[in-house]
Amino acid sequence: LSCFVFVCVCVSQLFDRVREDNPDFHQKIIPISSELTQPGLAISPEDVQTLTSCINIVFHCAATIRFDEPLKHALQLNVMATQQLLSLAQQMQQLQAFIHISTAYANCNRRHIDEVIYPLPVEPKKLIDSLEWMDDSMVRDITPHLIGDRPNTYTYTKALAECVVQQESGRLNMAIIRPSIVGASWQEPFPGWIDNFNGPSGVFIAAGKGILRTMRASNDAVADLIPVDVVINLTLAAGWYTAVHRPKSALVYNCTTGGINPFHWGEIEHHVMSTFKRNPLEQAFRRPNANITSSYLIYQYWILVSHKFPALLYDLFLRLSGQKPQMMRIFNRLHKAIGLLEYFSSQDWEWNSDNINMLMNQLSAEDRRTFNFDVRQLNWPEYIENYCIGTKKYVLNEDMSDIPAARQHLRKLRNIRYTFNTVLLVFIWRVFIARSQMARNIWYFVVSLCYKFLSYFRASSTLTQ
Ligand SMILES: *[C@@H]1O[C@H](CO)[C@@H](O)[C@H](O)[C@H]1NC(C)=O
Ligand SMILES: *[C@@H]1O[C@H](CO)[C@@H](O)[C@H](O)[C@H]1NC(C)=O
Ligand SMILES: CC(=O)N[C@H]1CO[C@H](CO)[C@@H](O)[C@@H]1O
214 CB less than 6 Å from ligand 1? Predict the structure, then answer.
């Protein structure tokens, strides 16, 4: 993993700005090889020595964010690794603060979420011990009972990790950050930076490519996206506060936008569609046009008409032209992915924010600017537009100069759709309706009218020539 991080530092555009400002910045970084699933995190004795003698602040943000990770693996990565890092932190002589990154949805089984750590019915250590001897299929069978009213193993194990952190809070100086749905950057290093398909990014891309045409979500539910640079700035500021002011218990910071600057799924849909119509992605499957609905029946209808039917046709076309059909497979994967998000896009939550406000007041005016995390200034339409363009530029690596060609492609798709609709209409008419005498009369009337119109048009155009 550390190797990978290092390669990223060297090539990613993310670091262009810091590379320009400070060309030798990488000399300040000491990569350390580690493996979260191994005992002692598989850190070499020399590295342990370095860490325990010179670390001041630990920011713990390693976790699996796959919602459907098998429980045992999720426990290993999110809970046991946290435990191991905490015991390493106990040995760090210079440690001032331990900042644990959690998620705002760790307690999503509640509607109103305060900035406190909620107790769980099970002791994390006991759970880990008891799962130890079970095989994977057994764990799979009891997983639904364990996670209870939480939607997935991710939120469950993140809640367990918070409990583990709390158990150590007597001995270490700690804070917990709870970001909601983390999205592309707002300002730093530049607007719209994003490099993965996780969460909303994948949905935006699928919608921009014209693959995703419908999704189950509530138009008026708050879409609690939070820009990644806000999370980072808040985390750094919380590190400072925890180290300097040493609060008596571990403080929890909710890092969300819903309460203060709400934006809804319906609005997101509108802005994503309008951005991708103005700045289309290359080689779209269909024109970007998505409808979100909270009704199960309407959703199933659109799935059939806008997803499965076109996929079937396209696969037929691929098969006829001697290629391998693949569209249905893509759609099945897409449905699985959006199914996992449904829980979060169909309801909203309220988070309490006293600690954030407190932190903001504690910062000096200059620090408040440097470590800005005030989401009241966030202009949503502009943010969503930069986000979508960011997915085009940095995730899909598409060139902005190819936009005219992409627009041309969309026009072609529109013409194909018009032609297809016309052919379908004629077909339905001929096969189902034109059987009765009256329908046939109407049909001939329309056809002859068209014919007359065409010949009139041809005559007049020959005249003008
Ligand atoms: C979405 O809804 C609009 C208006 O309600 C409709 O015109 C459009 O065809 C719908 N598109 C899809 C893909 O569902
Ligand atoms: C976060 O802090 C950096 C560094 O001062 C700043 O450039 C950036 O604008 C801040 N992010 C936001 C969202 O304000
Ligand atoms: C940083 C941040 O957005 N904090 C939010 C936490 O939740 C409350 C209540 O929903 C909001 O008012 C805060 O803005």
Answer: yes
